[in-house]
Amino acid sequence: MRQTEMARQLFTFIIFLTGAVTGLQLIIQPQQIEEGVTQTLDINCSTSLGAGSDFVTLVSLVLSLATISGGQFNDLASVDSFSGQVVNLGHGNLTVFGNIDNNGESFLGARWSSPGLQETGVYKCTANGLDVTGQPVNVSTSSQVNVKQSEIQALKAELSKMKADIELALNNSCISGCWQNKLDVMMELMFTSSTVRNGHRYLLSTKDNRVTAPVAAATCVFFGGYLAEIDDVDEFLFVQSFVNSSDFQMTLIAGTNDSPNGTWVIQRTNQPMPFTKWGLGQPIGSSGVNCAYLNSHYNWDMDVYSCYNLETAYNFWPRFVCELPE
């Protein structure tokens, strides 16, 4: 590496940009690259839930880039609380890493190898989640990466075009239902949908999700519904038939007895469960075992298990069912 480049990297100042959500930070190093010389470009976004945060539950972090030539934001990488997986959205020389932790720090990072002109522009980090009222909310912060060129006039022209393009992209971002479109895509990736019954449809998470019962409930709210609430035998048989599968063992539904008198209630309304069909010998009450499930061991009748320590006894993570009014 040339000495000038080594010196430039040594004295590069890391810039922290804080957006609308308390603690949302975007760190980029370096903020100016020299094509053919700069070896790596690192982009890191992080946040922690706490006092002053806009979120009660963080659902996902997304990194996107509006390039000098393109002008519109395209997603680069994402991490979500449903699967815990970090997704590289089709960029071969990009390495991504991250984690969602609603009890600590959440982060999403990306590294370009041998970055060039196509990796310059405005980088944006978007945090998606639920606020204290249970409503979906998304906030973002952004920072610009420039390219170092030998011809000053060419650089000025490119920066001028980038400014105009990015302003246009920012002004036109997330209009005409793009937020709903993104929700629909996420829903298709994370859930299997039932047919519509009495104006409601049901979503079954498509893989073992490393989430606790409260986070599963918040996820259902995020997509416009709630944990499936069984009102009568007909609805029970419909949901039972929908989840009946040989490739997993348990699925969470609405229902808890985590109350002073031990009554089984619906979490959302705090009203008694209108219908129950427990498996043989259930429910067996014990400390910390407070949530209702459908269990294949009982032919998909109701079972009771922990709301939090979901992996301890069975060495797997249950799925969950959301109910969405149409």
UniProtKB/TrEMBL annotation:
CDD domains: CLECT
Name of the molecule in the record: C-type lectin domain-containing protein
Entry keyword Nucleus: no
Ranges of residues in domain C-type lectin: 197-301
InterPro entries on file: C-type_lectin-like, C-type_lectin-like/link_sf, CTDL_fold
Native organism: Lymnaea stagnalis
SMART domains: CLECT
Coiled-coil regions, chain positions: 145-172
